[in-house]
Task: structure prediction
Amino acid sequence: MAKGKIFLTLFISIMMGLGALILANNWLQSKQANLNAQTKPSEPVTQVEVQIKEVMKEEPKVPRVMAQQRIPLGTKIEAKHLSIEYYPTDLVKSKGYETPEQVVGMLARNEIFEGDLLRKERLVTPGEGTTLAALISPNMRAVTIRVNDVIGVAGFLLPGDFVDVIYIKEKSNNAITVLKKIKILAVDQTARTDDSKPVIVRAVTLELTPKQAESLVTAKSKGELQLSLRNPNDIEQKKRVYRRTTDAITIIKGTDTSRVNVRI
Result:
């Protein structure tokens, strides 16, 4: 009987030990699983999530109206010409337009290319005058001269081109360039064109300063004018100016001395 109690007590002790061992093992496995979950690499982030995070980290941006296609000189701005882009505040120094409604209906003072930001300096409102008057730069004048197929460079003159004006005196073979790099505002009654094909014109309107306008009219009254088409990227070479100076020298004749001014 005593042996039976001993075996029973030993069995219960072994079972309790096994139970405690199983509980301890389960606890350790649970802790290890939690630790692995914390140290496990995060799942791959999609490209959209990356862009969203980058946008959230970026500086504040401001909208700017830009040209989504080429806009020729004198063209009336329409909504189809425009698009909106957002730029960081620090990068956009000039004050541009923020909405297309601010631009629609205005005229392009100069040719605007795709991707250019629209600024006030490059646009004019129709209310400032006729289309041509609105395109004239400040303090400049528009002067029209009559041309033929020869003077007009065989019809290759288009609004926005630059020319030199050559004066040929009547009954003389002398030719003098009286004006250089003059902008053409219009040919005949057209201030803009979407076609680069040559067109024979009868009149060309030039943009001149008041002094240049006087020189052109004077030259026209004394002889014949010829237009010379030029590359707008040509760099004008400045003429060297030589100035004469005077100096005094001393002339000695016996006991007499005199000073004479001499030009050098």
